[in-house]
Amino acid sequence: MTSTISSQSILFRHEWQARTLMVVDEKGYRSLYFDNQMIQSRMALEHPLWLVLPYTQHMLAALLFNGHPRHILMIGLGGGSLAKFFLHYFPNCRLEVVDANPEMAAIARQFFFLPHTERLTLHCADGGDFVQAIQAKSPSYDLIILDAFDHDGMAPSLYHDDFFRQLEPLLAEDGVLALNVNRAEGRAYRQVLATIGQSFPGTLLRLPVPPPSHNEILFCCREKALDTAGRLGPPQAAPWADHQPPLDFVDFLERIVPLKQSVWQQWKHRFVRYTGRQQA
């Protein structure tokens, strides 16, 4: 990557914690890189609301379980692709977004068109410190998205059982937690799978992102979220679906693997029958 980028394509360079963050225009896309090689965020210049990276598209499978989130917590901002999506297509939702990098909010707004709106609150803080600080206020979130990667991968201060235990009481009774994890980080990935069920006793699901990506999205769903979602149509019927790259939510559903059974098989059968697709 570094050998093919010209100096003219680099829009911004920022040194943070002894690492380099760069905003680069290339082949119709604007990308946010860590250390010139790890893509953190990407935007199509002609379609800035599109979710370009496959893992962000897979994150939307959370809408299978809560199709109308009104209060959303995002830990990890990056270029703000998911924040832009929810602000634009869900006009009744409020977002709180936390990122430890003091420059990230300005980068997302200047280069990736994150809007200024009273429905968005940005916090510059460590995600763990933020969640601990709001415990006494007992907020309730319909959707919590954990997508906190540093230059070395999954942020170790967040992807562990103590942090998961702090997140659990913040989830609404029909809420969903969506975590972006990296299968290539073998030990850390296995530790997340081994411990998250202790903090979230509801239904736990895995949705691998196809190769060459090593991402996988984990969903922790309240039982009420499954019960409600089983009576809903597929999210691709939503008005915003025509303004995104093709997203096959039934395909997402068929590739989801339960970490434990709970009521998952019964719900999945009900949903697939609703869509009219035959199960294998």
List strands and helices in order, with pairings.
Blueprint: E1 10-16, E2 19-26, E3 29-34, E4 38-44, H1 54-59, E5 71-75, H2 81-89, E6 94-99, H3 104-112, E7 120-124, H4 127-134, E8 141-146, E9 149-150, E10 153-154, H5 161-167, E11 171-182, H6 186-199, E12 203-208, E13 215-221, H7 223-229, H8 249-255, E14 257-258, H9 264-275
Parallel strand pairs: 5-6, 5-8, 6-7, 8-11
Antiparallel strand pairs: 1-2, 2-3, 3-4, 9-10, 11-13, 12-13, 12-14
Helix pairs in contact: 5-6
In words, what does this structure look like?
The longest helix has 14 residues, at 186-199. The strands form three sheets. Strands 7-6-5-8-11-13-12-14 form an eight-stranded mixed β-sheet, with helices on both faces. Strands 1-2-3-4 form a four-stranded antiparallel β-sheet, covered by helices on one side. The chain has a two-stranded antiparallel ribbon with strand order 9-10. The protein contains nine helices and 14 strands. Helices cover 28% and strands 29% of the residues. α5 (161-167) runs parallel beside α6 (186-199). The model has no long low-confidence stretch (mean pLDDT 84). It is α/β, with parallel strands linked by helices and 280 residues long. The protein folds into two domains: 7-44, no CATH class; 54-259, Rossmann fold (3-Layer(aba) Sandwich), CATH 3.40.50.
